[in-house]
TrEMBL record:
This is Fimbrial biogenesis outer membrane usher protein. It holds the Pfam family Usher. InterPro entries: Fimb_usher, FimD_plug_dom, PapC-like_C, PapC-like_C_sf. It comes from Montanilutibacter psychrotolerans. GO terms for biological process: pilus assembly. GO terms for molecular function: fimbrial usher porin activity. It comes from the Bacteria. One of its GO terms (cellular component) is cell outer membrane. Residues 707-768 form the PapC-like C-terminal domain.
Length: 787
């Protein structure tokens, strides 16, 4: 927290027309006969108070009850709770009584006041109200086929989701592969990938998963794929909640002011400050050293400028915030090869992170199973503006073997320079759950990075990596058990939308293992891009030229042409792609070293919801089905961007939407016929994760008309005359020139009109075919007679 104090100028100088306390005459004894009780509007330090306050005016002086003054914010040390106090006896207080407006202006120094702290730019971390999930099914699919002279292949991947049928979302995915060769014909297999049921509790930021999942993980632990149960914190359910510490600035102002906050030269907040202390929070949107610039402009137009440096990092949790997960199950094996391959031994895993302060977050981890016991502690410290330091230590025991793992890390950057280094080392026979079903954790894993950025030179970086694997696992890996690599890179963006990237990497243990890479990227305008690269790796050269027009994200066609040559052979490829409302397709031809093949791919989604089927692009997040009560052709917008029109049944699939967040959906009423009653033109949808919400725009066709009513003399009925359609419970009002807008009309209509001279009746039939609101009349309003 950083603090500032605005200058109390208003308390030092009386405003125009003000009367300072020293200028008021002293109290005269015996003057009670001239006392006058007043209930006045109060303006305290240029801020209008909402309630009237009782004052007593006696001999030109103002008195008030101490309880009323305390209610206004005065501290009044040493005064009784019910004492009558003269305002001119309060140190530094100045008053001005406005007789004409029955108002009193009071200027008081902040030392005399105790006011609540105004918190600005705070974020409500509570979950947004969730739009009800409608029952439905979703199938995402990806198809890929290839063919050459003697072989063919087909791969189909699908994900099926069911939602709204009960609580939570059930999903399962699988892949089917088929192969054909001239010798063996077709063969193939289908493998289940992942199946689970997920239930979320947004208010508590908790998610329960039953089925295939991952054990929770920290930076210094290794996750494993499990089949079982997991429950844990999920801050993604509350996307408007800030989990990292936010720089906050404290201060106070003596008069109403306006504050502007700039972070690294970019304005992030502007707001009004009432009198008193305030706290301004901000989300800098940067990582590393930053500078906040505060500009306070008071009611007199004077400004104060204050600068505050800070350091921001996403590695920390805010003070008092916890993040945790618990997992139990059996380890999934042979993923992608076998559908139901699980280990027999149950395992357990738990993680906890807690923000001790805004500068310190503690971490802990424990796991067990198959005779293994593993536990560790760690932490992340923010060392002022000097960077972030992290450390952890874990110990394990398997049967009679013991081992430990220690990690250290440091990171610092200020936007122009950055340095980071981390080290992970194991000793003894260290084991975790992942090592029971795969390779052990490396004995040594170290990394160091450093770089700087300037406008004229670009970005320059150097890196170093060291990895040492246990000898017992080295036989199953490619390369030596120990490897050390170092590299340097340079990237610069030039004018006219082109950039250069140059990098060099070398194995420090094998002088023949080195690579040099150079690439140049040029934007050609009209969404065209040219990329060229040259690479020399272990004495082998290759050159690639790539010309592309990417497929637009909003839909349309794109293409790519690539040519490459080098020691690995000459070749190239050509492909085209198209993205539409119902999916994405692509075709391509490729050739390398005399070997050529063709391929095709398609992806999309199929949705069944609310009795309607939809074909769409692949949907990985939430979505909504818009209904307009059977009215087709209604244009729909998502965040003020056209997204489509409802079909003949008045429905439209809108995807993707951001789960757990506000998504603004709207329709354009100007495109609808005038004879429509529209309840809402804009609605907010907040769908749950990976599910569909039903959003209804209530649109009702109405029989309405503009009826012109005249009296018995043929003159328009007077303005504000009341008219009621027979059978209706509500009156309508006659407008200018006798024009009356009436809804909910029938085929035959009878109007009862209450005029100043009595009641009259008008009759008319509604037109059989009409495309707009008809104008009917003038109709005479005559005597009421039986039908």
């Amino acid at each position: 927290m950083l603090a500032l104090l605005a200058e109390d100028a208003a308390a030092q100088h009386a405003p125009d027309g003000g009367v300072a306390a020293a200028e008021l005459p002293p109290a005269q004894p015996g003057g009670h006969a001239s006392a006058q009780v007043l209930y006045l509007e109060v303006v305290l330090n240029r801020t209008r108070l909402p309630q009237l306050v009782r004052f007593i005016r006696r001999d030109g002086r103002m008195f008030a009850d101490s309880r009323d003054l305390r209610g206004m914010g005065f501290t009044l040390p040493g005064h009784e709770l019910s004492a009558e106090i003269a305002l001119d006896r309060l140190p530094g207080v100045q008053t001005r009584y406005d007789l004409a407006n029955q108002r009193i202006d009071i200027d008081a120094p902040l030392s005399q006041l105790t006011l609540p702290t105004t918190r600005l730019n705070t974020r409500d971390g509570r979950a947004a109200p969730i739009t009800a999930t409608a029952p439905g099914l979703l199938l995402n699919y990806d198809l890929y086929a290839s063919h050459d002279k003697s072989n063919s292949g087909l791969t189909a991947t699908g994900e099926l989701r069911a939602f709204g049928i009960g609580p939570g979302v059930f999903s399962t995915s699988a892949v089917t592969r088929g192969y054909r060769s001239d010798d063996d014909g077709w063969r193939g297999q289908t493998v289940r990938l992942q199946s689970n049921w997920e239930l979320s509790f947004p208010a508590a930021a908790l998610t329960l998963t039953v089925g295939d999942t991952f054990s929770g993980f920290l930076d210094w632990t290794r996750p494993v794929r499990l089949g079982g149960v997991q429950i844990g914190r999920n801050f993604g359910l509350q996307p408007y909640r800030v989990t990292t510490p936010m720089p906050a600035f404290l201060g106070e102002v003596a008069v109403p002011s306006v504050v502007d906050l700039y972070v690294n030269g970019v304005r992030q907040y502007r707001g009004e400050l009432p009198v008193g202390p305030f706290q301004l929070s901000t989300v800098p949107g940067i990582s590393g050293v930053g500078n906040a610039h505060l500009v306070i402009t008071d009611a007199f137009g004077r400004t104060r400028n204050l600068d505050f440096p800070f350091y921001s990092t996403r590695q920390l949790l805010a003070k008092g915030l916890s993040d945790w997960s618990l997992s139990a199950g059996t380890v999934r094996q042979d993923y992608g090869v076998r559908s139901f391959s699980y280990a027999s031994e149950p395992v357990f895993s738990g993680n906890l992170r807690h923000g001790i302060s805004d500068n310190l977050t503690l971490e802990s981890h424990a796991e067990a199973g198959g005779g293994l016991r593993n536990a560790g502690l760690g932490g992340v410290w923010l060392i002022g503006r000097a960077g972030v330091f992290s450390a952890s230590h874990a110990r394990s025991r398997l049967d009679r073997e013991h081992g430990s793992q220690t990690t250290l890390g440091y990171a610092w950057n200020n936007g122009h320079f950055n340095v980071s280094a981390d080290s992970q080392r194991t000793s003894g026979d260290y084991r975790d759950i992942a090592s029971l079903y795969g390779p052990r954790a490396p004995e040594i894993s170290e990394r160091a990075l450093a770089g700087f950025t300037t406008a004229w030179l670009g970005n320059v970086g150097i890196n170093y990596v060291r990895l040492r694997q246990d000898d017992t696992d080295a036989a199953s890996t490619v390369g030596p058990a120990t490897a050390r690599y170092a590299g340097v890179s340079w990237t610069r963006n030039f004018a006219r939308d082109w950039s250069v990237n140059l990098s060099y990497n070398r194995n420090l243990d094998d002088h023949n293992d080195r690579s040099l890479y150079l690439s140049i990227a040029v934007s050609l305008g009209h969404d065209h891009r040219l990329d060229t690269s040259w690479q020399r790796n272990n004495g082998r050269d290759s050159t690639v030229i790539d010309l592309t027009r990417p497929v637009p994200g909003d839909g349309g066609a794109g293409w790519r042409v690539q040519m490459h040559t080098g020691d690995g052979g000459d070749g190239g490829l050509a492909e085209v792609g198209w993205l539409g409302a119902h999916g994405r397709v692509g075709l391509g031809l490729a050739r390398l070293g005399g070997y050529g093949h063709g391929y095709a791919q398609a992806s999309g989604g199929l949705v069944w919801m609310g009795g309607h089927g939809f074909a769409s692009r692949r949907i990985d997040d939430a979505f909504a089905v818009i209904t307009t009560d059977g009215i087709g052709g209604v244009p729909v917008q998502l965040e003020n961007r056209p997204i489509g029109h409802t079909d003949a049944d008045g429905v439209l699939l809108v995807a993707p939407l951001n789960a757990w967040q506000h998504n603004k959906l709207s329709i354009d009423p100007m495109s609808l016929p005038a004879a429509m009653r529209i309840a809402d033109t804009e609605l907010i949808a907040t769908p749950s994760d990976r599910a569909g919400a039903r959003v209804r725009f209530a649109i009702t066709p109405i029989r309405a008309a503009l009826v012109v009513l005249h009296d018995r003399a043929g003159k328009p009925l007077p303005l504000n005359t009341r008219v009621r359609v027979e059978g209706s419970a509500a009156d309508v009002i006659v407008g200018y020139d006798g024009e009356t807008y009436i809804e909910d009309l029938g085929t035959h209509n009878r109007l009862r009109v209450q005029t100043p001279s009595g009641t009259c009746v008008a009759r008319f039939d509604y037109p059989e075919t009409v495309n707009a609101i008809p104008r009917i009349g003038p109709l005479p309003c005559g005597d009421e007679t039986p039908r």
